[in-house]
Protein 1
Amino acid sequence: MAALSVFGITRRGIMWIVSGAPRRQFWFRSRKEKEPVLAETVEEVKKEPILACPPLRSQTYIPPDDLQSRLESCVKEVFGPSVPRNWQDISLDDGYLKFSLLAHLADDLGHAVPNSRLHQMCRVRDVLDFYNVPVQDRSKFDELMANNLPPNLKISWGY
């Protein structure tokens, strides 16, 4: 186990020889030239993609006729049975109650309040106004096609 250390005297001075190798080779072993790595050739096989994109979700929402009674029942469920007569003016300052109410309504109606509109829901009246607005799943181009266009204007989809 003992390494053989020998002092050798050369023209330039004392040279270390460790295990029969000069000092330069001992300290600079990492500078050995590495063997070039040969890249393996891989055949590219074009296949059909396994995963297909899922169909777009329909975001159509039509408010139900009994929206006010459904909202009132959700408010009673979340805030308790002792809801005041003016239940539409109940404040939604408490984040937990606001979340509970909006989560119940999203499950019940199948339409959730987007994140960009959450800060606008300050009272139950704001929630009622949001759910009273119908949402259509059509683009502006679809709406233009449905309208009666003048004869000199045509929209062609295949270009």
Protein 2
Amino acid sequence: MGIAITSGVLASLEARATTRSEGSPDRQSASASGTSTPTLLSAGDAAVPSHFIACVSRQESARKLRRTFGDLGAAGQAVEVVVGDNLQAIQQSDVVILCCKPQQAQNILSLSGVKEALDQKLLISILAGVTISQLEDWVLPTTRVVRAMPNTPCRIREGMTVVSSVPPENTLDKEIIVTIFSSIGRCRFLDEKHFDACTALSGSGPA
């Protein structure tokens, strides 16, 4: 799913650049259905990613990712693939998407220096069954933790992502989240207590 999200964002950025060059309005539009994606009214460059770091644990996985993103042409050049160096990648990032296996999350977040590296940053987890409360126990109180549950069709950019509610004052966080997940389909903010029912209905578990 990490590949799908990154590829979707890259494609969205390319489309955004094309739209701007043609002089068309640049904004996310809401769907007419009941699963509308929030419209961005003030998203600026701060909400748009410019560099991506993909972290893997094996050289074989790194080679596969480099081929995948290499096939995207110029857009894929924005992706840096690193092996076995989560800490440095987190230190260099403003937003971290956690998309490992759920049972690996605590070990990754408990690595020496990771808590400090996540200080004041936005951590987005797409892990099934790992709650915000659990994640907050593994990071500093200053880390802003959000859960997102994309479903399987997100792999072809036709999905639905449910995102946990974001405090109203965190406007930039919300714009970043919408920028990311609207690139692979639609997204909707929902209280975490509804996640189990929603993910069962939308098929987010297999994602």
